[in-house]
């Protein structure tokens, strides 16, 4: 087991508009965090790079208040979860397994997953490999990576930055992905989980493990998940940010068609982190869609 860094709890005890209390579980020698709010059919929100469950703070309340149980994990290496400092520890398989075990330990069935950025390859793979645990999918600015996908110049520049910089500039990445100016306290909430360069191994790893050729590790798995979703009858809601520089709207339409769906809502005036730019609006769209595609009540 590699050396692990645990962000001090007091660093994340008081962040703006995030009153949700963490819950903890053990995974592969790590303490992993998640929030679990509300009662009703489960909705699981899976964040991406380099965010944590904090990114869902505006989206969750409309969904929770509509009668759903909202669960948002911090992936290994992010947020309140433990952070192995060896960049080689982080793999697509490990991240997927960490989310799959969350479903198992919480005994979730027929859940709705809401995925963004790297949460997409992880959550959608869980949906394909364990179809009994996921009944519906909500997709925000993400994709499945097969090695054939065309990456933007903005993403390639980001990958180069992650490869050469041990001290990844978290605030720069968040600001670059938003259209609405963020308060200093919000920027701080994204930086606090990473108190030193060693703690950023997980954030640096994500762009490096994304397959850019079909021969790379994870590409065949991404293709498998994409092929399966192309004929999958489960309801899918796709919401995209109009001004996303990392995954432009054109790529959203290509991905939607590849999984047998369409882009249902284009959110104007937002960037890649559309939860920041239009979180409450997205929460209302999700809760309204869930009412029309209602999970079975328990």
Task: Please describe the topology of this protein.
Blueprint lengths: L3 E2 L16 E6 L2 E8 L4 E5 L13 H6 L3 E5 L9 E2 L7 H14 L5 E6 L2 H11 L4 E7 L12 H12 L5 H7 L7 H8 L9 H9 L9 H12 L5 E6 L7 H10 L6 E3 L6 H19 L6
Parallel strand pairs: 4-5, 4-7, 7-8, 8-9, 9-10
Antiparallel strand pairs: 1-6, 2-3, 3-5
Question: TL;DR?
Answer:
The protein has ten helices and ten strands.
Description of the molecule:
This protein is an alpha/beta fold. It has a single domain, classed as 3-Layer(aba) Sandwich (Rossmann fold), CATH 3.40.50. The chain is 36% helix and 17% strand. Helix 4 crosses helix 7. The N and C termini lie far apart (40 Å).
Summary keywords:
298 residues, alpha/beta, Rossmann fold, eight-stranded mixed sheet, two-stranded antiparallel sheet, 36% helix
Query: On the 0-100 scale, what is the average pLDDT?
Result: 94
Q: How many helices?
A: 10
Major sheet? 8 strands, mixed
Our count of domains comes out at 1
**What shape does the CA trace take?**
globular
What is the N-to-C order of secondary-structure elements (H for helix, E for strand)? EEEEHEEHEHEHHHHHEHEH
| CA-atom Rg in angstroms | 17 Å
Regions with little confidence, pLDDT below 50 for 5+ residues: none
What structural category characterises the helix and strand content? alpha/beta
State the CATH class.
Alpha Beta
Bin the helical content: 25-40%
* Strand content bin: 15-25%
**Second-tier CATH architecture:** 3-Layer(aba) Sandwich
